[in-house]
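B., you asked whether I could sanity-check this one before it goes into the benchmark set. Here's the sequence:
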Amino acid sequence: METIDGIERTDPELQVSEREVLRQFLDYHRATLRMKCAGLTDEQLKQRAVPTSGLALLGLVRHLTEVERGWFVETLAGQPVTPRYYSDADPDGDFDSLDSHPVADVFLGYRAAVDEARAVMAGFTSGDELRRNESERLVNVRWVMMHMLEEYARHNGHADLLREAIDGAVGE
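And here's what the prediction gave me:
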């Protein structure tokens, strides 16, 4: 286990079930995102630090909050979800409208979304269980978990570049 600024990140175990290794890797990536944001000011979190990109660390947190809620709560739990950071009028609001919510509230919302996702996952016993996504296509729990890992891995790569550009911090 590694701790940075009070954020604990545990390496996934080497010999666990498929479901458990997916859960552990997802929690590892969630902690990585939080670590990339740790110790920065609100202004630094909103900084679009890579000139060729409009991404900011806060935008990544907002986006992944929406993704957690969309896949776990809406798709797997079947509960309606109202977007927090984007709308039909502002479809990229999670990335673009960074002043629409206080930074502290964004991180509270992110933690709540992760907790809710974990609660939803606790209700499944198999990765083979099926649900319908927003396009009414059937997806299984395993696919959602793999998609979430892909989403976090990609965005944590963005977070690496952003953090290094903001204050020079590198590494995991």
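One thing to flag: The longest strand covers residues 2-4. Otherwise nothing jumped out at me.
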